[in-house]
Specification:
There is one protein chain. This protein is of the alpha/beta class. The protein has three domains: 128 residues, Phosphohistidine domain (Glucose Oxidase, domain 1), CATH 3.50.30.10; 109 residues, PtsI, HPr-binding domain (Enzyme I, Chain A, domain 2), CATH 1.10.274.10; 271 residues, Alpha-Beta Barrel (TIM Barrel), CATH 3.20.20.60. The chain contains 24 helices and 16 strands. The longest helix has 24 residues. The chain is globular and about 80 Å long. The chain binds phosphoenolpyruvate and magnesium ion. Phosphoenolpyruvate binds next to strand 10 and helix 19.
Length: 574
């Protein structure tokens, strides 16, 4: 049956491929106790479910499709082996008897023990097998709950696969190689969540906030994903498929044409030079940066070096990563942001539980609370300044006290390096992100104390409008054109320009064509975005004339009716 779902478009492109379902990784079950006379029955219920799961695997092996990849057999064998592990097949029975608990609870508890054992493995491949453990446990759980599972096929290499998940964390996504999946779709998530940002940096179409996609889609279903419109079509008929194949070719052709602008300078029609920089998460992203013709790194989200790790990177490892980026950019600017950990980016094993993580110990707050972590990063960063045009950017500053404290940390680190005769750029520029409304409103102190500023619109909008950027339930309220947001942006850009402090925008708004002329009209001359967005934004700059923008931009700032604002913006973009 063909049906369509609508979500939030977060990374453009059209993908056609087969669904690969990612199992729910959490086993959410009830816990209850049983009277002694029912224990025997409960153990028997577990045994029946275990046998049924075993049988499921055996019949899958017997009915293996002829064209199935060789991985299919290996995958079945592995899952059968996991099922027979005493911790899954024996320990839950013992626990039911010993603790008089329900079978689901015993299974969940023993699975967690087994997963923890896999987590201990040094070998990354073995460690990753914990996902298989969870998949087998979910299958067994479904038997217990009377909802036998449908076999998730191993990722195939002969067709394009689209990953379908209830939720994906940025840490999940960063592990995939570019082009490993043709697209990603999730039930949860918002347009500027870090998951969405990573999908864009992998240059992979992605739609989030689809609500029930994971439930409605079956393994191997044929999917069409339109990452521009946020539309997902499940099991399309031939006519729809043909239409989207045409659209896909047209889209790819457009991208190829845009890439021809790679070497061109981003000048406006009236000759102003606009800098288009790139946002990256890892040193590997440099190839994308070069391919799309960005002239610098406007934001290196260094915290991604910390995700999915059991052992945190030490000074040397960090130094080598920063140095690689500095050298790789051949003297072009490289802005490295100090860790923005916390909220949706947590260090493995040190996850903090906070009532409002986005308002909690995040970014510079966490760094100032963990001086050792911060000092190590600052040493690595300062050492890397010797090898290129490196600047240091500090996230989530809210006012003078934090700026002073941060600058003192940097000064003390410089002195320590001096004492050890370690070279670094004595004139390294220190900048601050403007992403808290308080910072935008009290900008003067930032302009006086810091060398450059960068507006993080993702958080600035989140905090101005009190909308969790990762929550799809309130995604419709996330409005970059809200007059409050526009006024803050206008104020920050004009104040920075008045003080002669370089200002850029590195939030997702910077990579959206709809806002390029608006920013130019507000006086912005430097943008930073996902590498793949650079060519289209460059084309827009090349066809814009600053002289034409001022009047309409002022009208937009004076308007307070959302429809009027949209209408004026359309005129600006016409
Ligand atoms: C922002 O908040 O706009 C930003 C660029 O930082 P991040 O998305 O990493 O929070
Ligand atoms: Mg931010």
């Amino acid at each position: 049956m063909t049906f369509a779902l609508h979500g939030i478009a977060v990374s453009s492109g059209i993908a056609i491929g087969h669904a690969h379902l990612l199992s729910h990784t959490s086993l959410e079950v009830l816990h209850y106790n049983l009277p002694p006379q029912l224990i025997h029955e409960e153990v028997a219920r577990f045994d029946v479910a275990l046998q049924a799961t075993r049988q499921e695997f055996i019949s899958l092996r017997a009915n293996r499709p002829q064209h199935a990849a060789v991985e299919f057999d290996a995958f079945l064998e592995l899952h059968l082996m996991i099922l027979e592990d005493p911790l899954l097949s024996v320990a839950p029975r013992e626990m039911i008897t010993r603790e008089r608990c329900n079978a689901e609870w015993a299974l969940k508890t023993q699975t967690e023990i087994l997963v923890a054992q896999f987590d201990e493995f040094e070998d990354a491949y073995l460690r990753e097998r914990q996902l298989d453990v969870k998949q087998v446990a979910v299958r067994l759980l479904k038997q217990l709950l009377g909802q036998p599972g449908h076999q998730p096929a191993p990722a195939r290499h002969d067709v394009e696969m689209i990953l379908v998940a209830h939720d994906l964390s940025p840490a999940d996504l960063i592990q995939f190689k570019p082009q490993q999946y043709a697209a990603f779709i999730t039930d949860l998530g918002g347009a500027t969540s870090h998951t969405a940002i990573v999908a864009r940096s992998l240059n992979t179409p992605c739609v989030v906030g689809l609500h029930h996609a994971r439930e409605l889609i079956r393994e191997d279903d044929l999917l069409i994903l339109d990452g521009e419109q946020g539309v997902l079509i499940v099991n399309p008929d031939k006519a729809i498929l043909a239409e989207y194949k045409l659209r896909q070719s047209a889209w790819e052709l457009d991208r190829k044409k845009l890439k021809r602008l790679r070497g061109a300078r981003a000048n406006t029609l009236d000759g102003s030079v606009i800098e288009l920089h790139a946002n990256i998460e890892k040193p590997d992203d440099l190839s994308e940066v070069k391919e799309h013709g960005a002239t610098g790194i406007g934001l290196f989200r260094s915290e991604f070096l910390f995700l999915n790790r059991d052992v945190l990177p030490d000074e040397e490892e960090q130094f080598l990563a920063y140095k690689a980026v500095a050298e790789g950019m051949d003297g072009q600017p490289v802005t490295i942001r100090t860790f923005d950990l916390g909220a949706d980016k947590q260090i493995k094993g040190a996850e903090r539980v906070a009532n409002n993580p986005a308002l909690g110990l995040r970014a510079i707050r966490l760094c100032l609370a963990e001086p050792q972590l911060f000092r190590t990063q600052l040493r690595a960063l300062l050492r890397a300044t010797h090898y290129g045009n490196v600047k240091i950017l500090v996230p989530m500053l809210s006012g003078a006290a934090e700026i002073n404290q941060t600058l003192q940390f940097i000064e003390a680190t410089k002195q320590a390096l001096d004492a050890e005769n370690i070279p670094y750029d004595k004139d390294v520029k220190i900048g601050g992100m403007i992403e808290i409304p308080a910072a935008a409103l009290a900008l003067t102190v930032f302009a006086k104390k810091l060398d450059f500023l960068s507006i993080g619109t993702n958080d600035l909008i989140q905090y101005t409008l009190a909308i969790d950027r990762t929550d799809e339930e309130v995604a419709h309220l996330y409005d970059p054109l809200h007059p409050a947001v526009l006024h803050l942006l206008a104020h920050v850009i004009s104040t920075a320009n008045k003080f002669g402090v370089p200002i850029s925008v590195c939030g997702e708004m910077a990579g959206e064509l709809a806002y390029t002329r608006l920013f130019l009209g507000l006086g912005l001359r430097q943008f930073s975005m996902s590498p793949a967005q650079v060519p289209a934004i460059k084309q827009r700059v090349l066809t814009s004339s600053l002289g034409d923008l001022g009047l309409l931009t002022q009208k937009i700032l004076r308007a307070d009716d959302p429809l009027k604002i949209r209408e004026l913006l359309d005129k600006l973009n016409a």
